[in-house]
Write a structure and sequence with these properties.
globular; four-stranded antiparallel sheet; 15 strands; about 25% strand; alpha+beta; 9 helices
């Protein structure tokens, strides 16, 4: 046995263990390589291959605390997500939602009469604070300016809900692209939906979801502040493209024209198709959620 190893100072063991934890990414990003973490690592056999991987996985999981949340998309956006999986950064890597922001988009009349208005949202420790244009930047006691994003935090995952139909011969038919996946009901799953041939996206169970997203960024902004590039990355459809000039016509989701020259206008037509005519002009506060398409049918790219 190598006596140099056996009698190495404890501090050196801690240093070596800390270095391994740092190299693994478990600390630095998620915390500090404290002696307590290093001791835990050593006790569990941190220098032994299998235990090394197991302990690092446990530590990373505890620090990440990754959660999953459901999110619904219509057929057009499902097809854009499938394209994004094949060619990342070219089709759809973000979505805008108003869920949970109604109180900020419809301020109490008592505040409006006093001229209170939201200037911006500031992120603090995973929550968001609405800052007013009043001198102090604070709202009165009759209004709670704090909110948490209902879709989670950066690093969390979104499992996509979409419309599906049950085909007794081939399994489940995904309406957006007509793909059939052979799946049976999980043991113990009891639901009224189990008796239906058609299941709308809002009722899709987790086990039937084929698309998983990973959140990379969250912010709050006004709808009309969307940039041209962000509008394109909302998944709008290009209906005509000139390769020489790179000019595009974008789909008019209202159906009033053959195409729109500006991506932002196309996105606003999509927004109003979902939210109703004139809804874009209200310029609501929205969650801007950016993501990576992590898996399709359980396969990681």
């Amino acid at each position: 046995m190598d006596t140099n190893v056996v009698h190495a100072p404890v501090s050196e063991w801690f240093t070596a263990a800390s270095d391994m934890l740092t190299a693994s990414g478990c600390v630095g990003k998620y915390g500090t390589a404290t002696p307590e973490w290093a001791l835990f690592f050593l006790i569990c056999g941190g220098f032994n291959g299998f235990w090394n991987n197991l302990v690092l996985s446990m530590v990373k999981t505890m620090n990440n605390n990754i959660k999953e949340h459901p999110i619904q998309f219509e057929a057009d956006m499902i097809r854009a997500l499938l394209q994004e999986y094949s060619t990342p950064g070219e089709h759809k890597n973000q979505t805008r939602r108003t869920c949970g922001l109604n109180q900020f988009n419809d301020l109490p009349e008592a505040l409006k009469e006093r001229g209170w208005e939201i200037q911006e949202f500031i992120e603090e420790s995973g929550s968001w604070l609405a800052v007013s244009e009043e001198g102090s930047g604070k709202f009165s006691d009759i209004f709670i300016p704090w909110i948490e994003c209902p879709y989670g935090k950066v690093g969390d995952r979104l499992w996509v809900q979409e419309e599906i139909c049950h085909n007794s011969r081939s399994g489940w038919l995904y309406s957006a692209d007509g793909v059939c996946l052979p799946m049976s009901y999980p043991d113990g799953w009891i639901s009224e939906d189990a008796r239906r041939q058609f299941i709308p996206s809002i009722h899709m169970p987790r086990w039937a979801s084929r698309i998983l997203l990973e959140i990379t960024e969250i912010r709050v902004e006004r709808l009309l502040d969307i940039t041209t590039n962000d509008a394109r990355m909302e998944g709008i459809e290009c209906v005509w493209h000139d390769e020489e000039t790179d000019a595009c016509l974008w789909r008019d989701y209202s159906g009033k024209s053959a195409g729109l020259a500006f991506a932002r206008l196309s996105f606003f037509s999509l927004w109003e198709k979902i939210k109703g005519t004139g809804s874009a002009e209200l310029n609501p506060w929205v969650w801007v959620i950016k993501f990576n398409v992590l898996t399709i049918n359980g396969n990681i790219k």
